TrEMBL record:
Protein name: Mut7-C RNAse domain-containing protein
Gene3D superfamilies, alphabetized: 5'-nuclease
Pfam families noted in UniProt: Mut7-C
Residue span(s) of domain Mut7-C RNAse: 2-144
InterPro entries: Mut7-C_RNAse_dom, PIN-like_dom_sf
Amino acid sequence: MFFADRMLGKLARKLRLLGFDTAYVSDMDEEEILEFCKETNRVLITRDRDLLRKAVEKGIRCYYVSSDDWREQLVELSKKIDLKNSKRMSRCSLCNAELVRASEEEIKAKVPLYVQQTQNEFYSCPVCGRVYWAGSHVEHAETLFRRLGL
Ligand SMILES: [Zn+2]
């Protein structure tokens, strides 16, 4: 869905927490980025006006953000796309992979005992193995998103 340019790593992680498929590769050059967006049909999010212009010339859909703060970037994006309508806790914020239900073994190995006793929904990332539950990385993000009106 999205491709965040190399200046937007934090924004990419928050978009994933919101549930949006967001690719982020820090070591691609401009040509590679444009090629990749075109091939995968991703919408480029960028702060780079030069890259924006090149993307438009190639017919790639893009969103421009001007702020260098990810909170303001989210607010800017929310004026262009509906960020509320997403499936939260469906994607790993580190790898962008879709989360799956965590197995008993993963829960036992990676979740603190008191959390195991108080929560009953656990998801894990098939790529990096990180385990997510309501109140882990998510609650903090939810508070922020609410504060931003998202
Ligand atoms: Zn992961």
